[in-house]
Amino acid sequence: MHQLIVERLAADLAVLTNAARAAHEAATHEENIPDNKYDTLSLEASYVAQGQANRAQEIRRALHAYRSLELQRFDSGAAIRLTALVTLEGADGGSKTFFIGPQEGGLKLELEGEEVVVITPGSPLGQELIGKSEGDEARIGTVAYEVVAVS
């Protein structure tokens, strides 16, 4: 899971860096020099470039955090903490799998045909799960789930 996150972040960073570069070039290209005060193409492109550059910086920080992340070992009965892969099962038999990571909550990846969602310890769900172990109940909104696996 850890390697999948690093690979995804590296790929996202490459895409965003290229997009930011292209938006910057569009913002500074001589054809986009405004002819009048209503011609805002260059200004809009500069806003896009800045937004993409900011997001690229966020991804760089997350990539560094994941590359330097020390994976924890989870023995039977271990409490959920950072780097845990947690599977929850609902009363209907449906399951959800989460990875507790330091950043990039909401990132969705596929591991062995299953969707895994990255959550952070500071998120509401992360706060609900931290400290629980197999067999404990966790609530997502009004729905109760059982923690069926922690690895």
TrEMBL record:
Q: From the Swiss-Prot or TrEMBL record, give the protein name.
A: Transcription elongation factor GreA/GreB domain-containing protein
Which SUPFAM superfamilies does the annotation name?
Answer: FKBP-like
GO-annotated molecular function: translation elongation factor activity
- Biological source species: Geoanaerobacter pelophilus
Keyword set for this entry? Answer: Elongation factor, Protein biosynthesis
